[in-house]
């Protein structure tokens, strides 16, 4: 036989490979009784053949499996000519196929992770060049409960790659027919965990269920497909073991003497009541006398709260923490350590009503953050408390009112100068708009919105008129009067001429009944006059006047609400009337003034004269009486 | 256009009825103003001061004074009501005076021409021109004090200033009161023009009354600190002789002086009048001081 020569080679598709057949192996294989040509069908009837021989056919016998393979990810890739696509022989071998029950079989359960791992291990061409959404599949699997069961405990009934992905009809999870498609996954897992639904019902109905009620949780939502699950499962490290030491009142750290006492009842009352010590305090070694002596890392909340952790890292707090600033708050500063309570718990520091006090710990005047801050806002906490939001929260107990975190966000607070900040001028209208949505819609269509007006000048944002922390009711007298100065800061000349009119003069006296800027122009929906939606558009202006002057007519609307008598070009009538009247005044006062001034000395003289004459008269009269 | 008519005064006079036997007769006084004229002038003062205070508080709204005054009147709205009410009183005073003139004309069966151009009329005449020029001469030391008659030229000027003022301020005031109505006939900017005229004419009126009129009538040395004749209606014969020599002479010549001689008011009445006078003067001067302050230090 030619093929007993182990130096014999053949070529296919330009590749040269050995065509040596180990007869010993062949005879011990499942195909020992099968003729060569039963598989190598193209050689049938040939005595000798050239070097170009086709791949052995399996489908003549295994036609069902071949069909499945053809439809699978691997089969389709092969059909497309993908060189990395595995064929039957890659997994099963060629002449040396031994029974699956033999633990030496390449496809025996114990060997499957290694088999699949040939292609799917980190750094392999498949993993690098093909679109595989998961990473570290093999490592994660081997650390997972399944992997551990198989590889460490020799549990051959535990799940291997093929248990979940199937052996031959491997499909991407996006394919609805896939065993790992979202809707099939429960069935797949239930092949082994048959009664899992029964024992899980409580959990599924519980907290996780509430998180996204619209989404039916699939197994993988909680149990990551391949990943190491140390955070999910304590490895034989029971809380009792920790408490043996940490329940003692007098336990202190050997390095700095701080108390290491743990109030276990506090944990049990917290959101983490179902989380065991070692899930947060990772790195314990249960086999040690002091299992915690192997802990090197601080508690990392982001291992579960990954998204929040990412946000925190972006934030000013996170950046300061990264720079090892002693003032930077970490998770526990706000959420506390063991007694973590949800934000819906009135006892919690992060319950809306308690948030201002929490932030005030650092941001109150004189405290660390307030000292560091160099911006224009002062007395933030005090001003907030007196603001409409503060009053709503603290006095009316309105937990839906805006607290610090509603505007600044809870985990990604940034200075307003940062373009990512929720209080950056660009973002502020949408920040306020989360509650005041109707206003945001109006504002974004108005001339003050950067969407409408393209200018280099600074456009007003919510806080420019309403202030940041001193926000007061817009129907309060103080606000109504102050807002005019606010408009006047940019619209200087138009505001000053307004104060020359009746409306303005009354406002200046401190009364709010006459028309103010926003009564005519609108507050958030200020449009250019040409816009048909503008309150001052030709079509709407009479109606606008009629808000106060019920009998207003079109000519009435021609009243100059921003009149000045100092502009002869724009308002000639007013200019000349004013100067005509002023001329009359000057003339009259000069004339009468001169007359009076001239009269004064004469009048004094005349007073003396009158006195003299009076005395004379009296003397005369006296004389007459005497006579 | 004639006031202080003899017939009219006579009815007001009670000189003949007073018993001369019981007490020594006090020094007689000359009646110069009818009761109606005195009442009208008091009404005029009250309404004018109210108008000035409420109006100026709006005109000079940028001063602390204005804010204070406005609050004193109970806010801009009630100040506005007071302003309009006082304006109505002013109209009433004006109308009452015109009605009075027509009544006198009927009673004395005079023609309008005689009423207007007669001897004691408020209308300017040749004597006023003469008095004016000789007054100027007297001021600069080129002649004697003119012999002023029933009405001096500056009194006539004041009288017509009020006529003019009521016409101008009243008309513009109505425009501002009823802008919706007036804009049915006039364009909107007429309201702006009316505002300027109303306010500047008011500045003229208050400025003139509280300085020139106050000086001419009350503060000039021979009358200082005030002349209460417009309230009491009577003046001592002594003073009358010296102040209005021409009128005195005429009355003596016609032998009518006796008709106008009345007894003086008791001291309590005089004190009351003086108190009222002081209040009016004080308000007037305050307004002047305030206007000057506003114009110089706070003008905008």
Protein described:
The complex is a heterodimer of chains A (627) and B (300). Helix content of chain A is 44%, strand content 1%. Among the domains of chain A are: 58-175, no CATH class; 300-445, no CATH class; 473-558, no CATH class; 582-627. Chain A contains 34 helices and 2 strands. In chain A, helix 26 (425-433) packs across helix 27 (437-445) and helix 29 (477-490) packs across helix 30. By secondary structure, chain A is mainly alpha-helical. Chain A has a two-stranded antiparallel ribbon. The longest helix of chain A is centred in the C-terminal third of the chain and has 55 residues, at 572-626. Chain A has helices at 23-28, 36-39, 63-71, 73-79, 88-92, 112-120, 125-129, 137-143, 145-152, 161-165, 185-190, 196-205, 207-211, 219-222, 239-246, 264-268, 277-280, 306-314, 316-322, 331-335, 355-363, 368-372, 380-386, 388-395, 404-408, 425-433, 437-445, 462-466, 477-490, 492-498, 502-508, 517-521, 541-546, 572-626; strands at residues 9-12, 15-18. The N and C termini of chain A lie far apart (189 Å). In chain A, a hairpin with a 2-residue loop joins strand 1 (9-12) and strand 2. Residues 1-21 of chain B have low confidence and may be disordered. Chain B has a single domain, classed as Fumarate Reductase Cytochrome B subunit, CATH 1.20.950.20. Chain B has 14 helices and 3 strands. Chain B has helices at residues 6-12, 35-59, 64-72, 75-108, 112-117, 126-139, 153-177, 179-182, 189-219, 229-232, 237-243, 245-254, 257-260, 267-297, and strands at residues 29-31, 234-236, 261-262. In chain B, helix 2 crosses helix 3 and helix 2 (35-59) crosses helix 9. By secondary structure, chain B is mainly alpha-helical. The chains are: A mainly alpha (627), B mainly alpha (300). Chains A and B meet through helix 31 and helix 34 of A and helix 2, helix 3, helix 4, helix 6 and helix 8 of B.
